[in-house]
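Backbone-to-sequence.
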């Protein structure tokens, strides 16, 4: 399989799993990967991109690379139109999660844009351990990676788990029927924040493991908040 066909194959989950690699693209994501010393195995870029972005080209000069046409890079890009630079990056091999740090647990999150926003929001608030259920979307899906805008490289642990495997934490479920987040007292306990999908909320299988339901008081109108917005508000309160 030639390099461009390999990049195209990584649009599919099975090939990401087989090769332990995923696609990143754009200045910001590739810059974040370089800063985090991530292993970029191959870089593709167009002549036009290199001429207009000498700063990023200086940073990637030691990475194996191929100059390809705009048509070719658009063909291998997961985006509708490529920014002109794209890379194949190794997926980090995480060990067990750190039991002294808080965790976000994603309960059947299926929307790639939401998951990308969740990752960005989590690292903004210093939460760098993300667990996800078997029913959640692959966090290395190209749409997730694009939405996360480099957040993958600021995460210390990312992996599939079931809630029953997580011990020694206060497990909080985000739910509109819960107590106001403002009234919750964590008392320096380590916690897991469980976020359910927007259409379905927390799954039935998660409820037996939840110690408490927490919610965001509604001041105005509307049925619900976007999951990324909700998690940002909850993390603001939990990390005060």
């Amino acid at each position: 399989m030639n390099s461009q066909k390999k990049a195209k194959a990584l649009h599919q989950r099975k090939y990401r799993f087989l090769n332990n690699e995923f696609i990143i693209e754009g200045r910001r994501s590739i810059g974040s990967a370089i800063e985090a010393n991530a292993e970029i195995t191959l870089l593709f870029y167009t002549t036009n991109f290199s001429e207009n972005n000498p700063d990023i080209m200086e940073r990637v000069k030691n990475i194996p690379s191929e100059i390809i046409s705009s048509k070719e890079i658009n063909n291998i890009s997961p985006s509708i139109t490529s920014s002109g630079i794209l890379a194949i990056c190794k997926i980090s091999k995480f060990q067990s999660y750190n039991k002294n740090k808080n965790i976000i647990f994603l309960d059947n999150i299926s929307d790639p844009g939401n998951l990308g926003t969740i990752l960005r929001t989590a690292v903004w608030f210093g939460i760098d351990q993300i667990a996800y259920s078997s029913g959640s979307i692959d966090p290395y899906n190209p749409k997730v990676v694009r939405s996360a805008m480099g957040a993958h490289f600021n995460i210390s642990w990312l992996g599939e788990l079931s809630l029953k495997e997580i011990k020694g934490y206060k497990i909080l479920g985000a739910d509109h029927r819960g107590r106001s987040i403002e009234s919750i007292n964590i008392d320096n306990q380590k916690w897991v924040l469980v976020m359910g999908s927007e259409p379905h909320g927390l799954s039935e299988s998660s409820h037996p493991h939840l110690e408490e339901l927490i919610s965001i008081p509604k001041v105005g109108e509307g049925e619900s908040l976007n999951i990324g917005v909700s998690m940002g508000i909850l993390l603001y309160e939990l990390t005060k």
